Prior knowledge:
- By secondary structure, the protein is of the alpha/beta class.
- The protein has one domain.
- Helices cover about 40% and strands about 15% of the residues.
- It starts with a strand and ends with a strand.
Amino acid sequence: MKLLFDHHLSPRLVKSLADIYPDSNHVYPLELDQANDKDIWEHAQREGFLIVTKDADFSDLCMLRGFPPKVIWIRRGNCKTSAIEAILRHHYADIEALDKDVIVGVLTLL
Length: 110
């Protein structure tokens, strides 16, 4: 499973989660940090990423366009990067199930 972290999340997550989500990336090194959601969506689709976001827009895109890519929507207010890391580690099995599911396109995590 490759995760693509959007600009609302820290680029440090790529390295801190590399042990369980190898080949993940962040929009900054891909020069997508100023791109619109549609461009990020298309990149994720083309490259086989699951989008990780704190933004409802990607969930909305999934409802309109279908998937792939699938979306992991973290619905937590301002919090430390370590809290986001803990959420993604704790929900590894749920994210793996999302990746394999043929019906569900969005996983909401609190």
